[in-house]
Amino acid sequence: MFEFPRGLPGFEGLRKFVIVERDGQPFKWLQSADEAHLAFLIADPHYFEPEYEADVPQGELNILNIRFPEDLAMAVIVNVPPTQPEKMTVNLRAPLIFNIRERVGLQIILTSSRHPVNYAVIREWRRKTVVLEERRQSFEGSAGAQAVGAEESHAVA
User: What is the CA radius of gyration of the chain?
Assistant: First the structure.
């Protein structure tokens, strides 16, 4: 069980949560122990953005009593519209920070606008796939041209 000393924004009175997970699944549930009907779908932000970094203020780290980097874990809340799962978003601006050793958690709201509140998972995945495909084609095109040039120069020599 994790204690959230400030609750969560909008749910300040709820302080106790458990994380429910299934092996091998990127998504977990942050289940309220105070209100059985309330749970938040969460995931590691690095699953969506491998380079994700959150500048956590030192005061927040002090509340969590983080002493060692391995004590720190992070998650983000996932929103999946019931009738439009393809419009799934994650809130990268307000990560959940956990001290897994002390079993304490906080949701912090980052002041930087570098991370969106509604990161569109599927749209970003599609965009990145297109960019990677363009890079692959460009690489193959330039590698093919180099190979042809190498063959021609070899044939000439």
Answer: 22
Which residue range forms the structural domain that includes residue 98?
A: 2-117
Count other Cβ atoms within 10 Å, centred on residue 49.
17
Residue ending a domain, choose from 87, 102, 117:
117
Say how far apart CA 137 and CA 156 lie, in whole Å.
28
CA atoms within 13 A on the CB side of 121: 21
Nearest partner of 115 among 137, 85, 96, 93, judged by Cα: 93
- pLDDT of 66 reads 86
Instruction: Please report, as a single letter, which amino acid is at residue 38.
Output: L
Q: How far apart are the first and last CA of the chain?
A: 73
Most confident residue range from 7-16, 19-28, 81-90: 7-16
Percentage above 90 pLDDT, the chain:
46
What's the total number of domains in the chain?
A: 2
- What Å distances lie between residue 1 and 23, 54, 60, CA to CA? 18, 24, 19
Does residue 154 share a domain with residue 111? no
- How far apart CA 123 and CA 142 sit, in angstroms, is 29
The tens digit of pLDDT for each residue in 64-92 reads 998 888 999 999 999 999 998 888 899 99
